[in-house]
Amino acid sequence: MAQSDLIMPKMGESIMEATILKWLKKEGDSVELDEPVLEIATDKVDSEVPSPFAGTISKLLYNEGDVVEVGKTIAVINSGGDAIAPPVKQQEPVTETAEKQVAVQAEIKPAVQQTNTNSSNGSADKFYSPLVLNIARSEGISMTELEAINGTGKDERVTKSDILNYVKKKRFSTCNFYSGADSSCRKTGGERNCF
Questions:
Q1: Does residue 111 carry a pLDDT above 70?
Q2: Cβ(20)–Cβ(66) below 8 Å
Q3: Which of 40, 44, 81, 99 is deepest in the core (most CB within 10 A)?
Q4: Distance between CA 159 and CA 129 in Å, rounded?
Q5: CA 142, CA 133: separation in Å to the nearest integer?
């Protein structure tokens, strides 16, 4: 049997890493060509990653919640000798040692754990996509505020639209608080807009 690497795909020009949300297959499961293997999240999009090979998942190299660089091997698939795989651009040779893989995982895990410990009063069970965290950070929304937002996504996850609606309501309520006394608030088309 031939072993083939499943690589973290590049999802866009500026995307350099992705978070593994959920493994749809586990070690020992068979997988067909183009069958989804895992779900990932980037700053811009959540997506399923299909298998470029038919075979059996022999090794999952990362856990759910891990942040993985684009181009890194995320799983190994054993395929039959007659399966033909499309060419895959790799950053490191296939003969990468297990020690290097463990070292990469050790570097990535502290970053993920740090994100979870940043929530002062929050539950470590909640997952926020990198996009939601970036919007919260740029808008000055604390983790406590973020955890109070009711999510409309899968498993009550906070989506991009949830946090943008929260930001809009927060600005509007701040604008109402000043009731127009602040020169940065204006009434346009029946609504008060803060700039």
A1: no
A2: yes
A3: 40
A4: 8
A5: 10
Q: What is the pLDDT of residues 1-20, one digit of tens each?
A: 689 899 999 888 888 899 99
Query: Looking at per-residue confidence, does 165 or 99 come out higher?
Result: 165
Q: How far apart are CA 57 and CA 78, in angstroms?
A: 6
Residues in the chain, overall count: 195
Place of tokens 């022999």: 58
Q: What is the strand order of the sheet 73-79 is part of?
A: 2-7, 73-79, 55-60, 30-31
The set of residues, in sequence order, having a beta carbon less than 8 Å from that of 71 and lying 6+ positions away, is 7, 8, 10, 89, 90, 91
Comparison of pLDDT for 55 and 86, the residue scoring more = 55
With CA atoms as reference, report the closest residue to 49 among 64, 30, 36, 34.
36
Task: Quote the tokens at residue 176.
Answer: 């109402």
H or E segment at 145?
A: helix 143-148
Q: Quick: pLDDT tens for 121-165.
A: 344 567 888 888 888 888 899 888 888 898 888 888 888 889 899
Pair of tokens at residue 173: 């309520």
